[in-house]
Amino acid sequence: MMSAVLRLDTHPSNPGAPDAAGAPKDKASCSSLADPPPGPFVRHPACKLGLLNARSVRNKAGLIGESVVDNCLHILACTETWLRDGDEPIIDDLCPPGFEFHGMHRPNEKGTRGGGIGFVLKTGLMAKTVVHKYKTFEAMSLITSGNNSMPITVLYRPPPSVENGLSTNAF
After folding, report:
1. Are 157 and 171 in contact (CB under 8 A)?
2. What is the pLDDT of residue 45?
3. 49 has which bridge partners?
4. SS3 of 91, please?
5. 3-class DSSP state for residue 27?
6. Alpha-carbon distance 164 to 139, whole Å?
7. For a disulfide at 156, which of 29, 79, 88, 146, Cβ 3.0-4.6 Å?
């Protein structure tokens, strides 16, 4: 299995270490994209990204949502969400207040469990999603707009198996 964020056209500033006592940063210190980061040479606000191969968000949606907040993320790319149609309550748990989910479930006709990719995205970020159709892997792009436009692509290639008919030769 493989997970990757393929492209990122911005250079976020380093958020720095915890405070001098080693305590984690206060959640209120998480900057929004509207707040410019400190420093005279920074031209674009920092956008904090994360990538998670969840191997099912179904049984840990709340913990993932807490992690988004704890790490002051603006965008979390997820692979292996294992979400299906009708999983809105799980998506509600996955997204902390002020966040929304943009995702693509694995089609039921593939006949296997698992799969699915998506983004947990801070509300207010202007973005559009583009779903890419491939036989051997799942891919979806999130394209933010505005002064800090950046395309981000998450891709998941299921491991080869008899059930999915994939081989190591196909990508």
Report:
1. yes
2. 61
3. 75
4. helix
5. helix
6. 17
7. 79
Question: Is the pLDDT reported for residue 52 higher than 70?
Answer: yes
CA distance 53 to 55: 6
Q: Residue 14: helix, strand or coil by DSSP? A: coil
Tens digits of per-residue pLDDT, 151-168? 999 999 888 878 777 777
Q: How far apart are CA 52 and CA 76, in angstroms?
A: 7
Tens digits of residue pLDDT in 13-41: 334 444 445 444 455 556 555 444 444 44
Q: Where are the beta strands (DSSP E) in the chain?
A: 2-5, 49-53, 75-79, 99-104, 117-122, 127-132, 138-144, 151-157
Q: CA 37 to CA 15: how far, in whole Å?
A: 9
Q: Any residues with CB less than 8 A from the CB of 143 and at least 6 apart, and which?
A: 127, 128, 129, 130, 149, 150, 151, 152
Global pTM value: 0.74
Residues in the chain: 171
What DSSP state is assigned to residue 163? T
For residues 129 and 120, give the distance between their C-alpha atoms in angstroms, rounded to a whole number.
Answer: 12
Q: For residue 123, count other CB atoms closer than 10 A to its CB.
A: 9
Burial level of 25, CB count in 10 A (0-12/13-18/19+)?
middle
Provide the residue type at 29 as one letter: S
